[in-house]
UniProtKB/TrEMBL annotation:
Family: Belongs to the CBF/MAK21 family.
Pfam families: CBF, NOC3p
Coiled-coil regions, chain positions: none
Source organism: Cichlidogyrus casuarinus
Subcellular localization(s) per the UniProt record: Nucleus, Nucleolus
Keyword DNA damage: no
Domain Nucleolar complex-associated protein 3 N-terminal: start-end pairs: 17-107
UniProt biased composition (Basic and acidic residues): 188-208
Basic residues: compositionally biased ranges: 178-187
Disordered as annotated region, ranges: 174-208
Ranges of residues in domain CCAAT-binding factor: 286-514
GO cellular component, one term: nucleolus
Name of protein: NOC3-like protein
Protein's gene: NOC3L
Keywords, in A-Z order: Coiled coil, Nucleus
Amino acid sequence: MSAFTEVLAEREQLIERQNRITTLCSKTVQNPNENLGKLKELIKFLSDQEIVGSKAIRKLLIPSLTVVFKDILPTYRIRMPSEEEKRQKMAKETKSLWIFEETLLKWNKYHIKLNETVSEFCKDFFQRDSVGQGTLDICVAVHRLCRSMSYKLPPIVAATISVIRITEIINTDSKPKSDKRKPKPKLSRKEFKKTKMERKLEKDMAETKASQARESKIKLNTLILKEVLFVYFKILKTTTDSRLLSAVLQGLSNYAHLINVEYVDNLLQLLTAYINKESCNLLDGLHCIHTALTIITGPGASTALELQDLTKFHNHMYEILGRFIHFGRDLPTSGVTRLEQKDWVVKGYYHLSNTPAAMASRQIAEEKAAKEKIKKKKQAKLAILETGADPRTSVLSLDQIEPPIDLLLSCIALILVKRRRESSINRVLAFVKRLSSLTLTVTDPGCIANILISIMGLMRAYSQTEVLFDSEAEIGGPYIPNVNNVDFCQAASATLWEVSLLLDHPSPVVSKLAHCIFKWGNELGSNDVTSANLVKWNTMPLLPAPKTNDPQEAAIVCNLNTLLSLGTTSCRQTLARIDAQLCLSQQEQQIS
């Protein structure tokens, strides 16, 4: 009887708290100015573990707070008064309005933090979920939410479902197994009985090792990926929000290796249309290309290549490289014809006189200069939004430059190394030249060393790159650096003079790799390219192994094969660690 009484008391307490929350919300919405203290009481419920511990209370409290803030928050932007404004005399209504807005912002901050923790909780749950059913339930709920919002959702929602760990799905593209069976070995009766017992034992052990759990996990992963891709594809087709598109493209880039053939054609058409837009920024373009190339080099490659041409991806990658080093679309003279330049020069000299026509010309020139100034300011703001650069220095910080460079090098490996048959030597030379120019733009030694390793990988795959070490050769005309077409930039006439500047780089890793590139280039130029030399360059240690407590990292042999197999991000981190250790040892030697 006592247990029944406790359950009844808990139920009555739950109903009482639910009624209290409902009353506080209705009074706050009816008159926010007078009942702002009711909102404070609602916020305090969030820190009460006994109240928040109840699932029924949480399901009522959090949505109710969202509705309340949505109703009482003003449509204008709230600006807090400065200290001077507070000391000035003001009307009673103005003072009460400022107090109301300040208190409202204070309590809304707690609500915003709560909403942010939901996204972080989901990401953490996705990483910890070993079964997959909870992840599927969240993805279904997100899909339902997106449908109710007509897929016009905040970017944080798309970014949240982009970190789900999916390693294996049901492969519907796999070819049917052939009917040809391997001939069975002839066994004696005793051996046959023994193998039969072993097979039975292995089958029992497989069942105990949760083989069924693995199959159910794969099925759940397939359903999860289906929900995520449906949301992403719908957003790509409907939205024009650049921030939301960036989050979607990043998510697609993460799941590109799992995308099925039935989605390939549709997705490639969407990505191709998006990278051709003028509004496509640098990172979004990289994510588009990485997603498309991962699909092309993965399952369904033959189907994709029958319908898609890789030339547009080559040209767009080349243009993105140019935008990193301020070539191509960002050149100030791009889009200006000779006639416009001549017309500007004539007006520039003509406006010096004081005739009516000259005064009119002066006014036109001033208006044009003002328009150009406004246009440049807009372009600068767009560049800041696009790249995340500091508006005072226009230099990307270290954490901002590392992911784009890693993604860029990964795309180059996909487009030039894995698809060697579709890449002509002129295109390879153009990419190697722009990569060498990029080493003078990037300031981080780890990123520079990573770029040099990629250049060495291309030199290994294409021995014809030795022409870039010949300063006298000019094939087909001079090199044109600001042309964004890989086939018409005359890269065979270029030279890698940028690498010579890196020979005296303060970073020991960058300097050593630059010396290796020059030494290898000289061997290529002397036609000393043999299989023995290639094996030597692939296996020769370029750098000392990193000093670390991790035995796996300590066992790394820093030759070209190992560094290229690590992947772009791991390779950069390894090179940065070695560079820091070498710099520290140099400082210790100087002190001693």
